[in-house]
Specification:
Strand content: over 45%
CATH topology: Porin
Shape: globular
CATH class: Mainly Beta
Strand order of the largest sheet: 2-3-4-5-6-7-8-9-11-12-13-14-15-16
Order of helices and strands: HHEEEEEEEEEEEEEEEE
CATH architecture: Beta Barrel
Number of strands: 16
Number of domains: 1
Low-confidence stretches: 1-5, 142-148
Largest sheet: 14 strands, antiparallel, barrel
Structural class: mainly beta
Amino acid sequence: MKHQIVLSIIAFTGTSLLAQDPHFTQFYANPLYMNPATAGNGFVKEAPAGRLTTVYRNQGPGLPNHTKTFSLGWDQQFDKLHGGVGAQFITESTSNGFIRNSGLLVNYAGRFNVGKKTQLSLGLQGGAMKKTLDFDKLIIGESYDKTIDTNLLNPTMKPKSSITYPNINMGTLINGEHYFFGISVFNLTKPNISFYHNPNVVLPRRVAIHGGYSFSLSNNLFIIPQVQYQKQENETEIMLGVNANQNNLIYGLWYRQTFGQYRNFDAFAGTIGYNFKGFRLIYSYDVAISDGRSAIPSSHELSLRYCWKTKQNGPKFCNALN
């Protein structure tokens, strides 16, 4: 019976939990994950800047099936390359650490002027991802032995403990002094993610469309409404909201709506943060309002960005993206 439960869990995670990319409430704070074409568009006081970003998300804290996601990214403009380069590490664990997905991606974004204050960027991102199963951390209930010995399973049914696969993403972005709009496609090759060599278990493509505009209300107050639409197989969601920046204090309100097979009024999120000496720190708290809120009632997310001036010449605008 215990073996059948383990096999059922693996089969489920191979086609459901493992077949979705991580999602962030602060998508705008994770530029390389939002769109590969954003590489190199950081700035400080209208001067090109290198950018270091990190985001940590804890979804459903205190629950046995909670999910933790962490990303770390770097990007910078290089005039000699006519664009920006970047690299990103991302890792996610769920089900008490039983399932872990990690990867390292590098990318390049070519940038072209299409007007005095408008630029078009085309980005390509690629790297390797690794999914692992840690049976020592698998919890299947109080009435079963929590120690799983996979050596007792039928050899023809025994799953691999880890799989590694390449991944390729691409995106395009158009931005001006106060606005941006981008489209990106992830998992272009639909890599196989089966622990049983099943060719039908693949990571579906994810399409993301995002945009925003920066409104200046005074010398020390501007607001940035933004929206992101994402679709990955049967999962569709829209994240929209606004952040205000007043005397370096950041505050905002966001809303997530899911559509398709899992249509829900999903969650509200509040944000609070601060800009100081090239750093930007933002904390957000998600409150679920969907029918499944008892399963994942809340989530915490913390992002930190640091920008520093470089000797490059461009880009020099679009504070909506920064």
